[in-house]
Amino acid sequence: MARKDADAKATLWSVAAAQRGYFTAAQALESGYSHQSQRYNAEQGNWRRVDRGIYRFREFDALPSDEDDHLARWELWSKGRAVVSHETALAVHDLGTANPARIHLTVPPGFRMRNDALVLHQAVLNANEIEQRQGYKVTTPVRSIAECAAAQVDQDVLDSAVAEALERGVVSRRRLFDAAQRLGPPAELSIDRALREAG
To answer: Superkingdom of this entry's organism (predicted)?
Structure first.
């Protein structure tokens, strides 16, 4: 029995390690933890309950964490359908002064889940507009800036993101303007202002 428990923990640990220590009840079940065993581990404090059906190994809470660790939790919450976007993506890419109070995620049209900690944007993203990070997905710098322009975020936030992205060479003026054009006139206008401000 002890061997079986150790195997289950090793299997689940391997899954959770790729998700910043987070895992779902379904992943635990698949790894060999019964519902009763899951309840026991949560009650004993071996696992921290983060949300309905989402846990985190307590060992990860004791490790030095990155500022974006919590974003893996929302990937699981959305069942892999959400992509970190808009101002939250700017913060992930360390572009400009964005510091949103809530987490911005882009989800597919028809997505019905809600949470007060989130701002959800519905859109279909192309594969080339998404980067995979450890435990979650995020829009690319070009897409992140363009979608912020389309959402009419504060121009100062946009200006600082564009200036830093150009300075670091992670975007080009042409690609930024092309991305803005695809999102419509408000995005074009805001990006044009930011590019002129950047000189």
So the answer is: Bacteria
Cα–Cα distance, 186 to 195 (Å, whole number):
14
HSE, side-chain direction, 13 A CA sphere, residue 185: 0
Same domain, 58 and 115: no
Does the pTM exceed 0.70? Answer: yes
pLDDT in tens, 103-118: 999 999 999 999 999 9
| Cα distance from N-terminal residue to C-terminal residue, the chain | 68
User: Do 52 and 130 lie in a common domain?
Assistant: no
What is the pLDDT of the chain when averaged over all its residues? 94
On whether residue 134 sits in a domain, the answer given is yes
Same domain membership, residue 110 and residue 190? yes
Contact 55, 28 (CB under 8 A): yes
Please check the confidence at residue 34 and state whether its pLDDT lies above 60: yes
Round to whole Å and give the CA distance between 33 and 177.
51
Residue-level pLDDT at 1 = 43
Cβ-in-10-Å burial (0-12, 13-18, 19+) of 60 comes to: middle
Determine, yes or no, domain membership for 71: no
What is the per-residue pLDDT for 30? 96
